[in-house]
Write a structure and sequence with these properties.
The chain is an alpha/beta fold. The chain has helices spanning 11-17, 43-51, 65-78, 89-98, 115-124, 140-146, 169-178, 191-194, 228-242, 248-259, 261-279, 299-305, 320-329, 360-366, 382-397, and strands spanning 82-86, 106-110, 131-135, 151-157, 182-186, 204-208, 222-226, 285-289, 312-317, 335-336, 346-348, 372-376. The protein folds into 2 domains: 11-31 and 64-259, Type I PLP-dependent aspartate aminotransferase-like (Major domain) (Aspartate Aminotransferase, domain 2, 3-Layer(aba) Sandwich); 261-397, Alpha-Beta Complex (Aspartate Aminotransferase, domain 1). The chain is built from 15 helices and 12 strands. α1 runs antiparallel to α3 (65-78), α11 packs parallel to α15 (382-397) and α13 packs antiparallel against α15 (382-397). The longest helix is centred in the C-terminal third of the chain and has 19 residues, at 261-279. The structure holds pyridoxal-5'-phosphate.
């Protein structure tokens, strides 16, 4: 078994071969260990597995060889001490937060959040006595003002869904550490390739592997990465005994997804840059938000903390919902769907779908308007996507 550094020179090798182990059959492709349990050669060996003296496997809710291979490859990619796979991205976010707080604790979070993360912070955790304050993530003084004596965790997404607003990871990490809190980052939009939160000071990183890591719309999955001490002492007992375990089959799909992650993300970034230029300045467009486009309000920060602009664009159309829906309905290649990070380009109207349950004042504060659509750029030919965007713009222009 060889490991490969996650420096740019070796990244593609790591994605294909990192942490690779083979069974005694010498298979080329990683094996799928589709088993719930494991057997022992003797009663004494069973005891040794349970005491931990024998490091072998016990039960797939605890550990599984295919899952472990996925975890180790992703861990190497992220440069983390430890990684735990989960059944979905939300299981990862919930586990990361729940393993970090207890009743009476307080969380400060950037307001621009994935819908279900918003529900965890504002509805579920409060039932167990954990409160949260949501702030404008771009405003460092707002993070500081929200700190309470019981603040234990800072939580954020950057770039955020669906507005592609950014938060300065290093500045917020320094602030969190100055009051003894830790910073948890949901790094889905940037992918493990374009932004390295741990290097910028974050303590825990979560992924919805459903998105770019699978990247082909096949399965759900997630992961939590962080320091060995946190993962062993707090996260692992939480996961083992509450059971949001990733299926070995899905772990295998995600491993296969990692093999092509950099090819896919690079291609989508190339296309996203072209589409951002096409949309920018069009008469039907009030604003296009793409982190590495010079018009992004936080362009300098985007250049500093992301190596590329990512695979998502937010487009604010003139003419509100009528224009947004006309744009979407005119598309012939891009599908209307709330998923993202897929090989297929997908578009969504957050106001009426993913963010519909959010209180209107929170939506307004986040910049989710009637005219806003979110585009996830896939792998189709750039010419076909440009033609599709042109069709959408022509339809939207009638309402601008
Ligand atoms: C999709 C997503 C999640 C949730 O992931 P699931 O795999 O759907 O549970 C969390 N955060 C962000 C930013 C996402 O895009």
């Amino acid at each position: 078994m060889s490991d490969y550094s996650n420096s740019p020179d070796h990244l593609d090798t790591l994605l294909v071969r990192g942490a690779l182990t083979r069974s005694n059959y010498g298979e080329t492709s990683e094996a799928i260990y589709m088993t719930s349990g494991f057997v022992y050669e003797s009663a004494a060996q069973a005891e040794a597995r349970f005491t931990g003296d024998d490091p072998g496997f016990v039960y797939s809710r605890y550990r599984n060889p295919t899952l472990e291979l996925f975890e180790q490859r992703l861990r190497l990619l992220e440069g983390a001490e430890a990684c735990h796979g989960t059944a979905s991205g939300m299981a990862a976010v919930f586990a990361a937060l729940a393993a970090s707080v207890k009743a009476g604790d307080h969380i400060v979070a950037g307001r621009a959040l994935f819908g279900s993360c918003h529900v965890i912070l504002t509805q579920l955790l409060p039932k167990w006595g954990v409160t949260a304050t949501l702030v404008d993530g771009a405003d460092l003084t707002a993070w500081e003002a929200a700190i309470q004596p019981n603040t234990k965790v800072f939580f954020m997404e950057t770039p955020a869904n669906p507005t592609l607003s950014l938060i300065d990871i290093k500045a917020v990490a320094d602030l969190a550490h100055s009051v003894g809190a830790k910073l948890v980052i949901d790094n889905v939009f940037a992918t493990p390739l374009l932004q390295k939160p741990l290097e910028l000071g974050a303590d825990i990183v979560t992924y919805s592997a459903t998105k770019h890591i699978d990247g082909q719309g096949r399965c759900l999955g997630g992961a939590v990465l962080g320091a060995a001490a946190f993962c062993t002492d707090d996260l692992q007992p939480f996961l083992r005994h509450t059971g949001p375990a990733l299926s070995p089959f899905n772990a295998w799909l995600l491993l296969k997804g990692l093999e092509t992650l950099s090819l896919r993300v690079d291609r989508s970034c190339d296309t996203s840059e072209v589409l951002a230029d096409q949309l920018y300045g069009h008469k039907a467009v009030a604003q296009v938000l793409y982190p590495h486009h010079k018009s992004h309000p936080q362009y300098e920060l985007a250049k500093r903390q992301m190596t590329r602009g990512g695979t998502l664009l937010a487009i604010e159309l003139k003419g509100g919902r009528k224009a947004a829906w006309a744009f979407m309905d005119a598309l012939q290649v891009i599908d209307i769907s709330n998923n993202l990070g897929d090989a297929k380009s997908l578009i969504t109207h957050p106001m009426t779908t993913t963010h519909r349950a959010m209180p209107e004042e929170d939506r307004a504060a986040m910049g989710i308007t009637e005219g806003l659509v979110r585009l996830s750029v896939g792998l189709e030919s750039v010419k076909d996507l440009q033609a599709d965007i042109a069709r959408g713009l022509a339809a939207a222009a009638a309402h601008a």
